[in-house]
Amino acid sequence: MNLKDQWRFVKSNMRRSKSRIFMTVLATAMSVAFLIVLASVGFGLHSTFIQDLLEDRTVTKIEIAGLEQDGNVQPITDKEIKEIEAIDEVKAVTRQQNLYQTPNYTLDNYSSQNQTVVAHFPSEIEAGLELTEGRLPEGSHEIVVGHHFLNHLAPTDVEVDDLYDENNVIKEKFQYDENLIGKQIEMEVAQYIEGKEQKESITLTITGIVEPPSKGWMEDQKVYTTEEVLNEIESFTNTPRGEIVMPDQSQPASIPKGYDAVYGFADSMDEINNISEILKEQNYLVYSVADEIKNINLVFTIAKIGLIFIGTIAIIIASIGIYNTMTMAVTERTPDIGIMKAIGAHPKKIKQIFLLESSYIGLIGAVIGTAVAYIISILLNITLPIIIESALEEQLPEGFQFSSIPLSLILISVTICLLVTIVSGLKPAKRATQIDVLKAMRREI
């Protein structure tokens, strides 16, 4: 009996007990759908979190906090930056210095106090810094400002009590409503000289506005200036980074030369991992989002395995129905089995027929269950965000997915289903091979 004949025999026998086969397939399909939908939540949330991280340029950024030497952490200097830039996979190395006072910025009759950093703009360009409008500085007294700089410009002729709303935000009618690009702004720095406070004003031109931070809750109101402006400030204050010395304080000690923030950039996350390993071997203190992604992947992998395991229990429960169906099939087809044995059918062929039938039931259930799971997944992704946003009154991130069904999940689910159904049919199939021919011909077992 060849495989084609076996299929014909299986199908003809399945037609005799349509209702029982239908219920068995239905139970199998429901269990497979449950497994896929349950695990798809883990896959969906995982892909959403990873996508959120990958959309940010920080995923290809390494924070280099310092260099460990003889048990001490040294700041990164130009010497170390050249060494880091020499690593093959490094695309750019950005560096920033913080101003040690918070200048007051004045534009027309508006003013604000903002943290100021000295940026190395050529390396920022190589690293992929983007602006929402304008351009990066080209002259020594040109600056770019953070995306939220404008939100903190307050009119100087309005009382503080009238200026802010209940959320501590400047009321819309008092906000600066002109374009910042090309505007000249006055930076005012201070220092105590011979016990008296002196102020120095430096005229700067705003050339661009930095793109907003990747996280919606973060604010960037910094001012990004050049080293020439820092030199001018240090010349006035006579202190490193423009630090203010109060009348009752002594002159600050010179600080070690170096940068407050150094970041290495690459083109891909794999390259970031390689660069991190190289820098760690050279005693650099480094951190990257890639390390965080490893931890996230590990957590979600464990969660997905757990969800698949729980879903597998449902398939195992459904396999009880398959076992009963196949046991009944052996009982009902005893005469047929006897005839096959009488004409010389090998026991392996008889066993193969019943295993083929149980596999066929499992395969049909897996196909139907997969189709149902896709429908449920689509409905989840459409309806759940609407329900959650209505209940919490908060907007979910764009592209947020509760459920995602990759091909790997389908293959895993179908494989589990087929294995369980085959195992369920093993004992009934073995029982079929042990039927006595004479008793079978007399319709006895």
Automatic annotation (TrEMBL):
Domain ABC3 transporter permease C-terminal: 308-435
Organism: Gracilibacillus kekensis
Assigned protein family: Belongs to the ABC-4 integral membrane protein family.
Domain MacB-like periplasmic core: start-end pairs: 22-230
Single Gene Ontology MF annotation: transmembrane transporter activity
Keywords: Cell membrane, Membrane, Transmembrane, Transmembrane helix
Topology in the lipid bilayer: Multi-pass membrane protein
Major localization listed first in the record, in broad terms: membrane
Pfam family, one: MacB_PCD
Name of the protein this chain belongs to: Acetoin utilization transport system permease protein
Highest taxon, organism lineage: Bacteria
Localization: Cell membrane
Cellular-component GO terms for this entry: plasma membrane
Organism phylogeny: Bacteria, Bacillati, Bacillota, Bacilli, Bacillales
Membrane-crossing segments per the record: 21-45, 298-323, 360-388, 400-423
